[in-house]
Write a structure and sequence with these properties.
Order of helices and strands: EEEEHH
Strand order of the largest sheet: 2-1-3-4
Distance between the termini: 41 Å
Low-confidence stretches: none
Oligomer: single chain
Number of helices: 2
Helix content: under 10%
Number of strands: 4
Largest sheet: 4 strands, antiparallel
Strand content: 25-35%
Radius of gyration: 27 Å
């Protein structure tokens, strides 16, 4: 069973405010930093207080620095399209077509089945 996670955001000298909560996934991870908001309430120099609660182990609080607002390693990198893979032809669409009978093994005049071709 997953753990419950509740995150509060705060800046130096400011009152902490609710930021995000939820449960860990099947691997035990929880993305505590990202939000589905247009503007992040996190400021530079802020911190997050993460409350982690499990039935087996109880609760603990960990204070962590707020992640950077912009990932510098990706924002300044220029894409390299010179080594991109060549375009490959698209496969034939799936479904019934004129050649479908050659794969199903059905003979002329028999009713076509659905899912019983194998």
């Amino acid at each position: 069973m997953g753990a419950y996670v509740k995150v509060f955001a705060g800046a130096a000298g400011g009152a902490p405010k609710f930021y995000k909560d939820g449960y860990t996934d099947c691997l035990g991870t929880f993305d505590y930093a990202s939000l589905n908001a247009k503007r992040s309430p996190l400021g530079s120099g802020g911190h997050l207080a993460v409350l982690l609660v499990t039935r087996e182990s109880g609760a603990m609080v960990q204070v962590v620095p707020a992640p950077p607002l912009v990932r510098e390693d990706l924002s300044k990198a220029e894409p390299d399209f010179a080594g991109a893979a060549p375009e490959l032809p698209l496969p034939e669409p799936c479904g019934r077509n004129a050649n479908a009978d050659s794969f199903s093994g059905s003979s002329e005049g028999e009713e076509e089945g659905y899912g019983d071709e194998f």
